[in-house]
């Protein structure tokens, strides 16, 4: 008889840790951001936009999180795949989904299982990736 161990889902407390860590990393770099945290089903667990973050950062952070979740990969790793000569170049227009292939989205795993994603928008793509990576590192 085999037993399976359930993996704890991403909680609201986890989401708050992710938001706080991403914002702390951005603040130390002098960047105003929006941070979105989604659970494994793509449902919003937490969202925060700094008062001075560009308005579109709210949308981009959410789309980055969604893309990282759906493809189970950091969005930074996907950018080249959707370029005109890339193998998935038609993916952004083929699906009626809010995908965004810009760095700043990171999937969140627990015990090797996908449990959600975090997206950061507002800085340069490389900065957003760094802030999201720092956030995920806080959960480990």
- What percent of residues are in strands? 15-25%
Number of strands: 4
**What general form does the structure show?**
globular
Helix content: 25-40%
Largest sheet: spatial strand order: 2-1-4-3
Regions with little confidence, pLDDT below 50 for 5+ residues: none
- Count, helices: 4
- Euclidean distance between termini CA atoms: 31 Å
Rg for CA atoms: 15 Å
The arrangement of helices and strands along the chain is HEEHHEEH
Question: Quick one: biggest sheet?
Answer: 4 strands, antiparallel
Structural class: alpha+beta
Mean pLDDT: 92
Task: Describe what this molecule looks like in 3D.
It is a single chain. With 140 residues, the chain is an alpha+beta fold. Helices cover 37% and strands 19% of the residues. The chain has helices at 12-28, 56-71, 91-94, 125-139, and strands spanning 34-39, 44-49, 105-110, 113-121. A four-stranded antiparallel sheet has the order 2-1-4-3. Strand 3 (105-110) and strand 4 (113-121) form a beta hairpin. The relative contact order is 0.24. The model has no long low-confidence stretch (mean pLDDT 92).
Gist of the model:
The protein is of the alpha+beta class and 140 residues long. The protein has helices at residues 12-28, 56-71, 91-94, 125-139; strands at residues 34-39, 44-49, 105-110, 113-121. Strands 2-1-4-3 form a four-stranded antiparallel beta sheet.
Keyphrases for this structure?
alpha+beta; 140 residues
